[in-house]
Structures are given as structure tokens and as C-alpha cells.
Amino acid sequence: MKLKITGIIVALSLAIGLNLIAKPDLDMKLNQLSQTYQGILQTRQIYIDPAELLELMYNGTMSYQIFDVRDDSDFNLFHIIDAKKVTLDQLKDNRFIKTLPDRSVIVLVSNDETKAAQAWKILAIQGVSNIYILAGGINYWLALFDNPELNSNPDPKPKPEGDDRLRHSFQAALGQLHPAANPDYEQTTKRQWEKKIIPLGRTKSKSGGCG
Amino acid sequence: MEHLKKDYMNPYAAGVLLGIVLFSSFVLFGHGLGASGGVAQVAGVVLDLIWPAHVEASSYYISLVRNSEHPLDTWLVYEIIGVVIGGFLSGLLAGRVKVETFKGPGISNTTRWTMALIGGAIAGYGVRIARGCTSSQALSGGAILAAGSWAFMFSVFGGAYLVAYFVRKLWN
Amino acid sequence: MAPFDLQLTLGHVWHNISYILMGIAFGFVLERAGFGDSRKLAAQFYFRDMRVLKVMFSAIITAMLLIFWSESLALLDYTKLFLNPTYLWSGIVGGLIFGVGFVIGGYCPGTSLVSLGTLKLDGAFFVLGLFAGMFLFGETIPLFRVFWETAGYYGPVSLFEVFNVPSSYVVCGAVIMALAMFVAAEKMEHLFSTRASGRKNP
Predict the structure, then answer these.
(1) Contacts of C83 in chain B (CB under 8 A)
(2) What ipTM does this complex have?
């Protein structure tokens, strides 16, 4: 009998106690995993070349989404065709995560790479898979695809250490109507680049039950 | 011989132990336990062996056993193999492994076997509709507070209690 | 942070072996609890031996407390766990039907396997019955496929999402409910076993 009373008290204390301790929120979890994530990002394995994104856009066999995490003003000046504007806060919302399709590549875009890397961590910690960052961001994309013949720099490079500001000037806010928003397919073959995207496999982890 | 058999474990203690096993499954595999899914998989494979044309004509069976090269290579099948072994081991240690039939005092063996068959068929039908059984839905889904699993759990008790009176002769 | 991706660390063969081991632990405990015996399982529905309720709910609240406490201590990532998708009407209808089969046959799929492991013939017949029932399902599912796939489908949703409260409230509620049920179960056992035999059950 004593054992039963002890059991009841233990169970109740644990149940009630759960209400009293603070639940780890997203930011706390991000802090915990910051070193691990830094390591992953440093390998550059999830940074894809703009040509790879271009190929993804023309490919048609792999489902993809481009999430542009920049400010409204930058987005309105220029964004890649079919890119969706999302804020970091939106990405932290569990309900938004639930709307994401199961088997789809997600490419995160900022002006350089900083904000996209933050977005990557936020998505990764919530268990989203197949997330990549556009190497060099919009700045690099424009350096490569915006009227290459007239471009002053023949061999542009991504600037990971950049301050994530848009370093390109525009005559008007064309958004995705700008010609560089939808470059020609031949741009994918003009340079050498390394393929990083891993083909979407069967999401085995989804079937955990008897159904 | 009855008194040589060890008593069953205290149900609360057994429950806590089971809860620990269940928790370890979540920690190690990211999901809980299961049983009916494994049985369904084996049933589908057996059907495919004896009547493949029938399997091909049904999208349900195709999704069950024709989706991969090795339809038996799923965690559920390995787990149910373990369940049978585990039951055997525990029974062995407690002197409870014996070919016999458990039944209510008022019925014959044959009646019990027939009822087990019928009950199994009804249960088999039900678990496929519910996409799970007590292991995968009630225990596992229950522990992580899946809404559908709790609804299922109460329905199981409901269905059983509703019919219990009518089949009381089987057990009492 | 748990859960871990064992497939990566163990490789395919050991991954499968670990499932067999988990199954062994599962079957072992079930047999220890007396769940390889259909009489003990059925007794639940005549209030004589409320073992099924006690074991099931003790297991559920133990695992639940372990899971949610681990989550609160940032040791376990709840969002990575498999949350059973809710098919509300399939779950209720299937549950009712399964319950009927449970009390007639005296087992559930897991316990019938345990019974099979200890060479019980009634367990073996139940397993055969399962095959038959599942075959019947395969035959009749085209008739109600749409219902089965869409009726009350809410995706993987938890009770605390449904009621829009913190998970700790639901855990608390579930634990209190389980404890109350245990107290009630003890009372019912006492009532039904003394009434039935005129004296306390041995």
C-alpha cells in the first residue's frame, strides 16, 4: 500500500512539475546546437552554385521552393522568378513548417549568405530536410547573370563574409520581371560548378506506425 | 503443476517497465512500438506468393507489398519476430511454455479455437481500418498524445465492453 | 539530441537486429504482465481483473512523463518523433470493431504473438484469424476507400494542439485521469471478485 501511495505522489509530482519548468523554445535549442550547425555550414556542402539552382528551375523533375529571406525593399527591387518572400519569424512558426511539402528541395536566398544561413538553422532544427543555401546570394547571382557581356568582373565570386546588403543598383523595382530573374538555360553550362543537391530519397522516417 | 508456475508481475510494475521500453523505442528509433503492421505485411507477402494476380489488381495490396524490393524488410516485421521470441523467453524462465489452450471454464477447446479465429478476424479487420492496434496506436500514440490514438483507445474499450455481456459464456 | 538516426550509425544489419531486440524486450514484458493469457486479458471486460487498464495506462503515463520531461530538459526533440496521423472516423470505427474482436478472441495483435511464443493454441488461432480479417479488409476496402482515406483526416495532430493548450496541461490531465482510473479499477476488482465468489479471490 505504501508503495502505491509513493507511486501516486511521484506520478503527480512529475506531472504537475512539468507545468512549472520552462519549455525549451526554438532560440534555446538553436543555442544548444550552434556549434554543430556551424560545423555543417563550414563544409559548404549545403551551399549551391547559382547554376545549380538554375538547372533545378529548368529541370522539372525535382520539386523545389525558393525562400527569399531579405527585406521587402530588396525583394521588390529584384528577386529570382517564383521566389517566395518569407521572414525569419515565419520560418519559426510551427504552423508554417507544417504547410511545407514533404519531398521538396528548399533553397534559401539572401543578399550574401548571412540571413540565409540563419534561416537554414531555423528550418534544420525543426526537422525540415533538403534545405540548401544559394551560395553568394543575390549579389553573386546578379554578378553572374545580369548581362554578363557588359559585366565588369569576368570572374565573380561569392562573398560569404559580405554584409548581406544588396550591392547592385537598379533603375526600377522590377521584382521578377528583371531579365536576370530568369536567366537562359545555357548559363548552366558556361562555367564549372559542383553539384551539391542530394536527390530526394524515400522519406523512410515518415512511417513510424502500423498503418 | 499450477503452483510451480510463477505468478505474473504486478501490473503497475509491468506497466512502468513497458513504459520504459516504449520510451527507449522513441529515443532510439524516433517512433514507438507496433505489431499489427508487421502482421499485415506478412499477410500481404503470403498472399503475393499464392495469388500474385490478385495483389496486382489491388492498389491497397500494391502499396503494401509491391512498393519495395524486400517487402518483409521493414522494422515492424523484425519487431514482431522479436515479440514472439521475447514472449517465449519470458515464458521459458517462468515455466509457462506449454502447448495448451486458455479458455473460460464453461466451453470446449474447439469452441475456444473457433472463437479465437473469429475474434482474430474481426480484430484484424478493425486494426486495418484504424491503422494500428493497442501497441502502435494506444500505447505509442497515446504516450505522445496523438489525438486520433486516444480516440481509438477509448473506442476499443467501448467496443469490447459493449459486446462483453453477450459473450460472457466464453470467459466466465 | 535524441532521437538518433541509428540507420546511419549502425548500418543496415545491426539496425534490423536492434528492432528484433526491441521486440524481444516488448514481448518479454508483455508475457511478464500475463498478457500471453487470453483469460487475463478478457477478464478486464468483466471487471474481475483490471490488468489491461493498469498495465496500459501505467505504460502510457510512464512513457509520456519520460518523453515530455526529456523534451523540457532539451534531451529529446519531440518534433522529430513519429506522431500518428489522426484519421478520426477510421480510428473510432476501427477501434470499435477491434474491441469486439478483442473480447471475442481474447487477444490483440501484440499479445497474440506473445501467446504464440508460449505455444498457446488459442493464440495461434487468433493470429490465423488476423490474417483472415486483414485479407477481408483488402477485399472490401475498395468499397469505402474514400472514407478510409479522408474521413476526419487531420494529419499528425496532438491533443494539446487540438485544445490549444501547453502540452504540460494535457500530460497533467492524462496522469490525473490515469490515477483516478487505477483507484476506480481497484474498487471494481474488489467488488466483482468478492461478489462472484463470496470471498476474496486468491
Answers:
(1) 141, 144, 146
(2) 0.94
Contact A208/B37, CB-based, under 8 Å? no
Q: Report how far residue B123's alpha carbon sits from residue C44's, in angstroms, rounded to the nearest whole number.
A: 17
Q: Which of A2, A6, A9, A210 to mutate to test the interface with B (most CBs of B within 10 A)?
A: A210
Per-domain boundaries in chain A: 45-189
CB nearest C159 (choices: B25, B85, B147): B147
pLDDT tens for each residue of A17-74: 988 887 777 787 788 788 888 888 989 999 999 999 999 999 888 899 999 999 999 9
Note whether C183 and C191 are within 8 A (CB): no
Cβ atoms of B158 and C96 within 8 Å: the answer is: yes
Chains in touch with C (≥3 Cβ pairs < 8 A): A, B
Confidence of residue A151 (pLDDT cuts 50, 70, 90): low
In whole angstroms, give the CA distance from residue C11 to residue A104.
26
What residue segments make up the domains of chain B, in order of their start? Answer: 1-98, 104-172
Q: What whole-number distance in Å separates Cα of residue C31 and Cα of residue B98?
A: 13
> In terms of CATH, what superfamily is A45-189?
Rhodanese-like domain (3.40.250.10)
